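[Meeting: bench + compute handoff]

Bench side (C.D.) handed over the final construct sequence. Compute side (W.E.) agreed to return the predicted structure before the next meeting so the bench team could plan truncations. Sequence as handed over:
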Amino acid sequence: MNGTLGMLGCGNMGSAILRGLIDTATMKPEQARVFDPDQARREEVSALGVACVDSPAQLGRDCDVLILAVKPQMMDQAVQALGPIDPAKTLFVSIAAGISIGHLQSLLGDKTRVVRVMPNTPALVRAGAAGIAPSPNCTDEDIERVRAIFESVGIVEQVTEQAMDIVTALSGSGPAYFFYLVECMTEAAVHAGLSPDQARRLAVQTLFGAGRLLAESGESAATLRERVTSKGGTTEAALKTLAALGFAEIVQAGVAAAATRSKELGR
């Protein structure tokens, strides 16, 4: 990756992105600049060999790509602190949920190139899934730059901005659905007689193994499900019960609710 990358705010996701870029040699530490008011965050960034700057305005002056990694409710104030922006120089990347490209351009200037990104927390272990939506004035080079950034911590799918609410509901919120499933499976196993530690280890490994098998086998989820479901067996009994209780409808309703809430929070 050429040029200088800036990061405004460096919480868990920002730190994961920096680590991914450096660990994959996508970027050298000296190519990055970070502003974060929190001393502990600055020390963590410095330990990576990345320079911390004294003000947001310095990021605005120095960086070719600037990742906006602040909380949505702080976005307006944070962007205003950047000062005058040269839209021909700086590409802005926002990972703030619900903040539209239009809103960012209203703050930064309507000629500003913006890519909106919805990452997810497995980026912390370089297994993330991110949807990216570029503004119409972004170049192919802009898009490839952003793709490279987020491929350093997982996979990337380019979508329209209108699809970002669905991406938010699917992969942005999605890890929580699987965590909740593991919680429920663990509780069920404990209720049936396993110790909590045994139940947790088995449930976690089952989730990990199933995900890895699905990712690496090249088979569809339906095909793998059918292969493990013997007629008249235990898996079939469980799946029939889940279907009878409306499992598919419950999942669809949950994803729809998340997408609706994402639209409500958008600005």
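W.E. noted at the follow-up: The mean pLDDT is 95. C.D. will use this when planning the next construct.
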